[in-house]
């Protein structure tokens, strides 16, 4: 039987022989496990049965075989052990089901074990479908003694949503890519629920490419742990994850690279970084986290909930709604980390940030002219808003105001970077022929306000508007000494 | 497709024979040719019987006895010793085990039996052919086993190919495939508490 790793060390997956089955809830091994495996808490290890009494085998760890079901074939593998399979060659990839539109075939694998790819380019199961028709792989174990290859991959094109590709309740362990939901899902529907993915370089990957992707799936309830990278959302199109637990992954829980991604009710515990916002300068992702939880475990530190780790284009957008960051077990660095120049938008709506450091102290130095991190109703408190831009932290001030609460408090972050509300301009609507006379009350902070302002006088600018003949940001007025503690 | 002449044909030495195909109307069937257009792929079955031996390629199919009349043929794969069937051809056109329309190759599910299949060459199940190991109602029992080895010389030399409308089914003993730990197991521990061991 096999045991998945329950730490951030991928290589702690192992197999041992059973000596006795002691009861309906206990077995005894012939020799002890090499590593500790957790059975309680945030990470619970899987135990999987690697043997069957009907075996289909290749020759050795490097000389394997394959099973290929053509379109319209009828295949049922039930409690079958399959070992030494796979290559990178077409029709010889491993266990492969090929289907065409209108095919009457069925391909069913249930309770099988597929183990030990004979080639690192091979696959445990390859759903090579134009439109999936009655393909079901359920409650199977995909395991590689040596890390490599891909456990399960789907590759679809098709204009009809002739659903019936089902990949539910499978365990995938020790592959380079555990499960790759790939292809041009134009209208296709894939049901992939309750996958348990462990000890892979990348646990769950979606590397769809193409300009038109409508990916409807019920991809939910996964338990992805002890991988290097838990989930990779790559490629265009809309993707969703629901009710997943992503825990103890060595590098990141989830890396959002491109496309539109909706992450709903997922838990990110004990990953090195929960979420990496990654990308290239020309590829933007829009990612939404709704009702998700991010924290360390009692034994595994999570440094941060979200880390901007590589270059992001200015239209990259990430939003967290009703999420909890750092509760129960705080993040060890900060709830929000910016470790690379950031041009995008990061928004937190009604989120709890419970770690001692909510945002890395140097984040503002890495926000460029277009980057903004916005926290609204922070910790569930009304009016507890703040916005981090390159130059300053902007917050509402309900204590100090001129006429009515609140005022806008601008806290410069650097003596060398001019603080401004450039990214949050005030708008006034002016009809043709009218004159707009803006009035702004400015107060420079005194020591009793928290810190005395010692910078240059505040200035009021009208922003460039070519429709009005204003070709550059234009200075309207400069505050005077009377604004000190006004 | 297998059929025989209405009566045995005794081949005379130094005599050329020609076999042609004729249909009642045009385009009723396609004949697969291996070389020139006039050379249909074929094999000749003699009346001499022999049990298959190592190195043999085997062809299992129903026998056409009249128009629209076929007698199905089933071969029981009950080997319990290792016989390496197949001539090791990597071509799908010349498989080691070919199961065609009306043919069934079946591994039985008797108790206390260790079945063995070893094949050097491809296994191809064509339309109407059936490769089966037990059924949902008659699984390989816990006291028995089947070890089916595709004896490749290089990676993916040979495999199992199920063509359109071919059937391949295999049913092993039902087992608990995946469970979870219910308490922590320390390094060197041998006692494994799990949610279920059923099966």
Q: Can you summarize this structure?
A:
Chain A is mainly beta. The longest helix of chain A is centred in the last third of the chain and has 4 residues, at 363-366.
Whole-angstrom Rg of chain A: 27 Å
Uncertain runs of chain A: 209-217
Our estimate of the beta-strand percent of chain A is 35-45%
- Give the strand order of the largest sheet of chain B, numbering strands 1, 2, ... along the chain: 2-7-10-13
Distance between the termini of chain A: 75 Å
Estimate the mean pLDDT confidence of chain A.
Answer: 86
Task: Note the total helix count of chain A.
Answer: 1
User: What is the rounded Rg of chain B?
Assistant: 23 Å
Helix/strand order of chain B, N-terminal first:
EEEEEEEEEEEEEEEE
Enumerate the strands of the largest sheet of chain A in spatial order, edge to edge or round the barrel: 6-9-12-15-18-21-24-27-30-33-36-39
Structural class of chain B: mainly beta
Kindly report how far apart the N and C termini of chain B lie.
Answer: 43 Å
Quaternary status of these chains? heterodimer
Largest sheet of chain B: 4 strands, parallel
- Counting DSSP E segments of at least 2 residues, the number of strands of chain A comes to 45
Q: Note the overall shape of chain B.
A: elongated
Identify the notable features of this structure and list them briefly.
heterodimer, A: 486 residues, mainly beta, B: 199 residues, four-stranded parallel β-sheet
Q: How would you describe this structure to a colleague?
A:
The complex is a heterodimer of chains A (486) and B (199). Chain A is mainly beta and 486 residues long. Helices cover 1% and strands 43% of the residues of chain A. Chain A has one helix and 45 strands. A twelve-stranded parallel β-sheet of chain A has the order 6-9-12-15-18-21-24-27-30-33-36-39, with no helix packed on it. In chain A, strands 7-10-13-16-19-22-25-28-31-34-37 form an eleven-stranded parallel β-sheet. Chain A has a nine-stranded mixed β-sheet with strand order 26-29-32-35-38-40-41-42-43, with no helix packed on it. In chain A, a hairpin with a 2-residue loop joins β41 and β42. Chain B is an all-beta fold and 199 residues long. Chain B contains no helices and 16 strands. In chain B, the strands form four sheets. A four-stranded parallel β-sheet of chain B has the order 2-7-10-13, with no helix packed on it. In chain B, β3 (63-66) and β4 (69-71) form a beta hairpin. The model of chain B has no long low-confidence stretch (mean pLDDT 90). Chains A and B meet through β3, β4, β5, β6 and β7 of A and β12, β13, β14, β15 and β16 of B. β6 of chain A pairs parallel with β12 of chain B, so a sheet runs across the interface.
